[in-house]
Amino acid sequence: MKMSLSSSLFARRTAGAVLACAAAVCAATATAADHYPSRPIKIIVPFAAGGGSDVTARLIGRKLQEVYGQAVVVENQPGASTQIATRNVIRSAPDGYTLLLATTSVVNNAHLYPRLDYDAMKELVPVVGIVEVPPFLAVGPGIKATNVKDFIAEIKAKAATEKGVTFGSAGPGSTLHLASEWLIKQLGIKAVHSPYKGSGPASVALAQGDIDFSFDNIPPLRPMVDAGKVRLLMVGARNRFPSTPALPTLKESGLPDEELSSWFILMAPAQTPPAVVASINDEVNKILKKPDVRSSLIDLGLAPMDTSVDDLKKRMRNDFNMWGGIIKDAKVTLE
Fold first, then answer.
1. For site-directed labelling of 217, which of 230, 232, 286, 301 has its Cα 20 to 30 A away?
2. Which CATH architecture group holds 37-133+262-330?
3. For residue range 274-322, what is the model confidence (pLDDT) as tens digits?
4. Contact (Cβ atoms closer than 8 angstroms) between residue 71 and residue 63
């Protein structure tokens, strides 16, 4: 069918208008990225002030402020297992001025909460990795083993008794809880989970002998270890941790070569300009190489990362599948 002269002219004008509009949007995006940042940046932390994620966000925020010459404000939005903060960042403008200090919850919550009303893997983009948070296998006075080989033998023997085995965690569905579920599956035993409201109470319970073992992070365990009430047997990661170089990894302990560390990363709303993402990624990676920053983070039991955006995307996909498998096997669900 032939197109009339007037129809052809209209089509050309419409196409031209669309292309012009697209070019204008691209130009505006490029301009915004070129001038980034031109105003304060906000980092939303999904936990209350004072915790590891909050301290990390404030440390990186201060250094980023020095680099960019713009204020970097940390805002705490705790609640609903990080869902409140995550949802608010998803709904914010994709311009790089609102970032989420994301934890492994952004990949785990999709498996834990059947009725989650957002898809963080699609609606957020990873910007830069900050730290890995390795879990440490800790035992209390009820376990005599001083190494992993003896621990496994002792735990298997105890699992066969009437009393059985108990383990604690900082809360149901946490990566610390899931790390223990992973270990239990590897050992082929059954054990009773005792969830606590945070790592502090869980560490106290371990020191008192109320539970046999737990996976936890260094800061809450350190006082109990220093007092001789708790012993660390291994780090649940692929690499030894700098401040505990004598502790073996999973593989070195005869277990599968898995990475059970959780992480803190910065994420932004999807459609954030790639140039803005690249700028933040570059500057934060430079910050993480500074000796004073590395030392501060390691003292907190955190292992500084050095990642590209593609590295993070791959890690998130892998963790989504790994933790999802553990959650499914252990039949863990939350409401």
1. 286
2. 3-Layer(aba) Sandwich (3.40)
3. 999 999 999 999 999 999 999 999 999 999 999 999 999 999 999 999 9
4. no
pLDDT in tens, 36-58: 999 999 999 999 999 899 999 99
Strand segments (E) across 124-238: 124-133, 136-139, 166-169, 192-195, 213-216, 231-235
Question: CA-to-CA distance for 231 and 72, rounded, in angstroms?
Answer: 39
Q: Same CATH fold, 136-253 and 37-133+262-330?
A: yes
Average pLDDT, the chain: 91
Lookup: tokens for 14: 């419409």
Domain ranges of the chain: 37-133+262-330, 136-253
**Distance of alpha carbon 189 from alpha carbon 192, whole angstroms:** 10
Q: Residue 155, SS3?
A: helix
Burial 240-254 (b: 16+ CB within 10 A, else e): bbeebeebbbbeebe
pLDDT band at 19 (very low <50, low <70, confident <90, very high): low
* Cα–Cα distance, 103 to 10 (Å, whole number): 52
Q: Is the dihedral of CA 77, 79, 81, 87 positive or negative?
A: negative
Tokens of 180: 């223990």
Q: DSSP E strands: which ranges in the chain?
A: 41-45, 72-76, 98-103, 124-133, 136-139, 166-169, 192-195, 213-216, 231-235, 262-269, 303-304
Is 209 or 20 the better-scoring residue by pLDDT? Answer: 209
Residue count (the chain): 335
303 strand-pairing partners: 132
Q: Under CATH, which architecture does the 136-253 domain have?
A: 3-Layer(aba) Sandwich (3.40)
List the one residue out of 132, 137, 169, 135 whose CA is nearest residue 253.
Answer: 137
